[in-house]
Amino acid sequence: MTAVTLFGLCGAALVGLGLYGLIVLPGALRRIIAFNLLGSGVFLLFGVIARRGGGAIAGTGSDPVPQALIITGLVVAFAATALAVALLRRLLQETGRDDWDEAGEADR
Amino acid sequence: MSAALIVDLGLALSILGLGVWTVAARSHNGAVVGYIAYGLLVALVWVRLAAVDVALTEAAIGSGLTGLLLLGVATRLPRSARQPSPTAGRWTRLLAGVLSATVAGGLAAVVLLLPDPAPTLAPSVAANLPATGLGNPVTGVLIAFRAIDTLLESVVLVFAIIGVWSLAPKDGWGERPGWLRPAPLGSALTLLAQLLPPIGILVGIHLFWTGANAPGGAFQGGAVLAAMWVLAMIAGLTRPPAVSRRRLRLVLVIGPALFLAVGVAGIWLAGDFLAYPVAYAKPLILVIEAALTLSIAAALGLLLAGPPEAPSAAERQP
Amino acid sequence: MDLSVMLDHLLAVGGNLLVLALMLPVASLMLAFALGGRHAERIALMTLPLGLAIAVAIAAAVLYGDAPLHTDLGGWAPPLGVALRADGLSAIMLLTTAVVMVAVGLFARADFQAPRGATETRASFAFWTLLLALWAALNAVFLGEDLFNLYVALELLTFAAIPLVCLDGRAPTLAAALRYLMFALLGSVLYLLGAALFYGAYGTLDIGQLAARIGGDDPLEPAALIAAALMTAGLAAKTALFPVHLWLPPAHAGAPAAASALLSALAVKASFFLILRIWFDVMPELLAQMAAQILAALGAAAILFGGVLALRQARLKMLIAYSTIAQLGYLFLVFPLVASPETASLAELRNAPGVWTGGVLQLVSHACAKAAMFMAAGLIAASLGHDRIQDLGGIGRALPMTLFAFGIAGLSLMGLPPSGGFMAKWLLLSAALQSGQWWWMLVILAGGLLTGAYLYRVLAPALFAQNPPPAPVKPVDRSREWVVLGLALISVLLGLVPLSAFSLIQIGRDVSGIGLP
Description:
By secondary structure, chain B is mainly alpha-helical. Chain B has helices at about 5-25, 30-50, 50-75, 80, 90-115, 120-130, 135-145, 145-165, 190-210, 220-235, 245-270, 280-305, 315. Helices cover about 70% and strands about 0% of the residues of chain B.
């Protein structure tokens, strides 16, 4: 097994882990962290694809196209996290709890 | 098994371990600290995958700024919420486990079955890079070949700012963002905030400037500058600007606006939207990158500073 | 100037029209953001007619040139560069978006007017900039030809839609917005994963090139299959397809009427549009047939489940929200009717054009009807101070025009003639019959009955109750009623347009809609 495959498998596992956390964890903060894990697994898989593409032709290096896309994706993921955290902090200000499932039920 | 592979195996296992920790940790603070450590290790993986540009972004944004954001909210959770309440029921967990394992298993199979030789655009990028006058292929993709993504992404940051600001509580509109309250004077943080920014600003500008030819660029440079600004705000050396300030709003849109303007000019000068006339490609790209660095730094910093809030009574009388 | 000369000029502008459609709202948004105050509203209102004109121009150019518009951005051809493309379907989506945007913008003036004087208010600034933001995002989705560019477009959509939903800032609304955000982000990240796998398998993200590679002689890469499945799951969560619809009703509960109209009429359609593109423009026929059965089964469940829950709602707005879940279900019935083994084996594919037209009519007429209904419900709620269905008896006499608009939009939703909804459901029904898939026919009929039942619950007492009508707390602005009525009328009049006028839908795809030329 090569290092590239190893990190690819690691990325696959992280996607599963993030998905699991996103479904079962209570409270918004932990889900936000799980979303970031999931995203990082996706980026890692993309990075592995880039490394394979770079290694195949030039001997060393990594395909620059996926690298650029990952950088874009990282910035977008940060902006998404910021919006989620902003919503959560406003919710805490209003209710003092981050348990949004029940707060959502209350209105129905 | 070679020594390098053993190191990589250790790295992969540490990442997985930290990942499991952020999901399983009992305290929210523990989970956040675990995530920050995780992000730093992932940055190392990017170096191992020969993606130094990504590694810089991951360290600055993925781990650094995201970590600050998460820490800011974790410490504010009420005591009752810090210990996670009982997790989802057994059946939900079982179902989620099966689903997640299936997805992970499928992806693992895909990783092992990816075509060989791998399809790649690396030669195509290398062949066309001279037309842009750039030396760093990643910057070439970001600012020339796939310029539309980068343009729209800098617009995403403006959207995110509007979104965060729109959450301003009552009476908060037009005021200063309220999340970054200064730490007590004379603390270690203040000292750090006085020492670091001059160095950090140099590093940020350097990252932007070398991005044309070496790893770095607008996003990495902007992220470092944003981190320095945030540090100075936490230390109370400077206050976040009021969101109603027109100059602030101009700084936030100057990057995407200039990018868009040069893009439109390209229709006449080079025949296509977002095309650069060959003779001026490099200087135009540097101007766009400079404006983007500024806008990105401002946007990232303000995303960490939160929505505007009415000043407290103490702040009203300095 | 002669019409044909004008059209020739349009064709000469060609691909730059697409750039204009994408960049006009972006530029307006940045200007509105920088100037703020009353300027934000003025800039947004000035953008409305311009954007509509561009959408009309694109549709005219596609129809007149009888070919899709296409442009390689920066002059870099895919796979290295990114392309924009508008075929007939994209043109129709752009046009629908523009029409609904104009109506919602005019309707929202009264709710989000910036105060006179220098200071700006939070709600006004946020609404007008986000309206432009949403428009930019939708146009990016409908024009995108590159899977990653479409990912950025989807994220633009998320960032525009979520703050719009929670403008009121109350705790339940914030909680609903947070839940919506988590679903949307999960959807985007699964979509991105799929795009990455497509790149890993084929080295391109361009939809046309992927279709050519996948449709070629090489065996299908396993990565492509998993990629399409992940993307579909992610996009279904964003479309609020049963059973991942949980975020949609609470998101509507506290949203301003204008935001609800945009969310149900347009935002959820964007992700549906991408599911359509993945299965009909990228993946091979045989796989599309299998996926079609699953998607349609979920759609059928949504029709029944959404209808039953709509019947049980106490608030008018929530009834309309659950109705959206049901009506979105119809869209997913298009898949097995287009991609049935029956049609694929016939070289002529006789009924497929009808299915396409039916599906697109359902999409467009639902967009207009649902936006009209949410705005009508908003007028009722603003006028009475509540929207409890049981207390709406006799409202027809107090607000006749609003209720008339609500009623005729409902006509289209139920699928009664003459309306766009009727034509849509009729085309789907006859396609189900012709391709021997009678079970989908039963679902369509049952869905129609349920729609009739939940609308009867509102309309019968509103029109015929003998008790004195509830006294409106606030009078309703007549010009806003006209906007709602106009949109409702469009959804009905679509049913009177002769079918041959819909040839635009077919431009840029072969008869079956499977695979690109």
